[in-house]
Amino acid sequence: MPVISIITKDSWTRCGKVLMDVLDSTLQIPYKTIILVDDSSDETASIVKKWCDAHGKELLVSRSNLYGFPRPTRATARQTAIDLFLNNFNDEWLMFVDDDAVLNEGWWRWVEEGKYLEDPAVGEIWGINWDASPLREKLLSLLNVDLKDYLIRKFEERGGTHDTLYRRKALEGIKIPPELHVYEDAYLHFYVKCRGWKSVINPVGVTHYHPSGSYTNLEQEKKKAKIAIESALKYGICEYETMKIINESRKGKILAYLSLFRPIVGLFPMLLVTIRVYGFKEGIPEAFKRQYLKAWFRWEVLKNVKYLNVKPDPCKVIGKQ
């Protein structure tokens, strides 16, 4: 029987009914307790408590331990949940569920029928994060890319904790760097993978609602992108796009800097997709913001990659822990 963990920050304000749908979707899983690591200033914790009381579930609530960092991050929340699980429970599995990821019907049945929990080699079971919005699928279809293949590749590059089971032994000893407000899931994935544990992909997955999925806050998106670049340089955790830019920079500066024009070339197909999804009024600024961020991200990678002689091997870096 797993223990469920949800990390939240003003989730009731951000997600509203989606949060309730997430909680309801967990009822397909046989569990007794939710570990809620809540760094909210709204009533998220009290909403979750009411739900737990109504459904006969135990609730352990905590704020993030900061681990020497000046503020809570997703990393401190994730690490707090892991520590609470390891120190207070004897169960074999901890399951992270994101506050905007609704488990699709049959998620747990697929795991049981495959008997993956009984396989001693399995340390991680991840469900595909199917988007509620059709935007990404429509964009990928224009590029002749299959959505399922794309999502699986993303998981292999950087992990994911939308709906992921972790074996107790696979988590023991982990210390997620507290500055990782994004890519904490990547660190966790590579920690498990680099110690020889097998990862299983559950195709049933979740419906991922991304309540802040629109690129409305450019500064916030830039902060996330900077952490992504730092993670690539420091830990070797690299998504395909970042790795491609790094490789291009090694082939020659001219080719690398010419790649800055790719987001401009990609503006027209992005406009076709965003207008189709959001409508004319919202679709045009959405496309410009997305392509601007892509160009800005490429520029930031190129500025920083000159300090990188060799991309770090995540297994060697994380393995030193």
Please give a structural write-up.
With 321 residues, the protein is α/β, with parallel strands linked by helices. It is 52% helix and 16% strand. It folds into two domains: 3-208, Spore Coat Polysaccharide Biosynthesis Protein SpsA, Chain A (Alpha-Beta Complex), CATH 3.90.550.10; 218-319, no CATH class. It has helices at residues 11-15, 17-25, 44-55, 74-88, 107-114, 135-142, 147-158, 168-171, 184-193, 218-235, 240-251, 253-258, 262-265, 267-278, 280-305, 314-319; strands at residues 3-8, 33-38, 58-62, 93-97, 101-103, 122-131, 163-167, 198-208. The chain has an eight-stranded mixed beta sheet, sandwiched between helices. Helix 3 links the parallel strand 2 (33-38) and strand 3 (58-62).
CATH class of the largest domain: Alpha Beta
Strand content bin:
15-25%
Radius of gyration: 20 Å
What would CATH call the homologous superfamily of the largest domain? Spore Coat Polysaccharide Biosynthesis Protein SpsA, Chain A
The termini sit apart by 29 Å
Major sheet details? 8 strands, mixed
**Average pLDDT taken over every residue:** 90
Q: Please tell me what the overall shape is.
A: globular
CATH architectural category of the largest domain: Alpha-Beta Complex
Protein structure class: alpha/beta
**CATH fold-level label of the largest domain:** Spore Coat Polysaccharide Biosynthesis Protein SpsA, Chain A
Strand order of the largest sheet: 3-2-1-4-7-6-8-5
Helix content: 40-55%
Contiguous low-pLDDT stretches (5 residues minimum) are none
Number of strands: 8
Write the element-wise H/E pattern from the N-terminal end onward. Answer: EHHEHEHEEHEHHEHHEHHHHHHH
Number of helices: 16
How many separate domains make up the residues?
2
